[in-house]
Amino acid sequence: QKEVEQNSGPLSVPEGAIASLNCTYSDRGSQSFFWYRQYSGKSPELIMSIYSNGDKEDGRFTAQLNKASQYVSLLIRDSQPSDSATYLCAVGFQKLVFGTGTRLLVSP
Amino acid sequence: EAQVTQNPRYLITVTGKKLTVTCSQNMNHEYMSWYRQDPGLGLRQIYYSMNVEVTDKGDVPEGYKVSRKEKRNFPLILESPSPNQTSLYFCASSRSSGIGGYTFGSGTRLTVV
């Protein structure tokens, strides 16, 4: 069974801080890695994709991938209360497997 | 607007009464998939389709059927719903499997009593 593991949280950070979200995966053949944000009662929304080792930055978000360690992370700089949500890691190639998500709470 | 449209948003039904949840996308995506989301279990794939007339089971296909007769539509059918199928269901599509991530529909909250 291919697995994607995330700490369920909640991860609490003050406004303006850096939030660091982590994900490990079991399938070494995975080639596509995504981070989704899901607000309570809403559908997942794609915020970052990464396909090769290293860092990828988009605004306040940075995705980091280390295939050797089977580890992918998401950094959110200058965290805002509106970033409070559950963040889902998804990994795969022809089929995506989702982690159960990390709940992030950003306090004003 | 590019989107995945699911209907209905909310549905309460009784055990054994056949139902269909519709899903339609306007992005000409080849790949479509159905997920259910349950507390503590995350998103689990029910069925997926790589293209028209090509469907395959996901991780939790029991009790569900799908069809893909047109590229834009991918309905989910529960022929005899049971209470353990009470869940939040999402349809998703992508240009090609694994590339570019999925676009999700707004979700269907199904309750089977």
Which structural traits does this protein have?
heterodimer; A: 108 residues; mainly beta; 5-stranded antiparallel sheet; 11 strands; B: 113 residues; 7-stranded mixed sheet; 0% helix; globular
Helices and strands in order, then pairings?
The complex is a heterodimer of chains A (108) and B (113).
Chain A: E1 4-5, E2 11-14, E3 19-25, E4 32-38, E5 45-50, E6 54-58, E7 61-66, E8 71-76, E9 85-92, E10 96-98, E11 102-107
Parallel strand pairs in A: 2-11
Antiparallel strand pairs in A: 1-3, 3-8, 4-5, 4-9, 6-7, 7-8, 9-10, 9-11
Chain B: E1 4-7, E2 10-13, E3 19-25, E4 31-38, E5 42-51, E6 54-57, E7 65-66, E8 76-78, E9 87-94, E10 103-104, E11 108-112
Parallel strand pairs in B: 2-11
Antiparallel strand pairs in B: 1-3, 3-8, 4-5, 4-9, 5-6, 7-8, 9-10, 9-11
Description:
The complex is a heterodimer of chains A (108) and B (113). With 108 residues, chain A is mainly beta. Chain A has strands at residues 4-5, 11-14, 19-25, 32-38, 45-50, 54-58, 61-66, 71-76, 85-92, 96-98, 102-107. The radius of gyration of chain A is 13 Å and the shape is globular. The N and C termini of chain A lie far apart (40 Å). Chain B has strands at residues 4-7, 10-13, 19-25, 31-38, 42-51, 54-57, 65-66, 76-78, 87-94, 103-104, 108-112. Chain B has 113 residues and is mostly beta strands. In chain B, the strands form two sheets. In chain B, strands 2, 4, 5, 6, 9, 10 and 11 form a seven-stranded mixed sheet that branches. Chain B has a four-stranded antiparallel sheet with strand order 1-3-8-7, with no helix packed on it. Chain B is globular and about 35 Å long. At the A-B interface, strand 4, strand 5, strand 9 and strand 10 of A face strand 5 and strand 10 of B.
Short description:
By secondary structure, chain A is an all-beta fold.
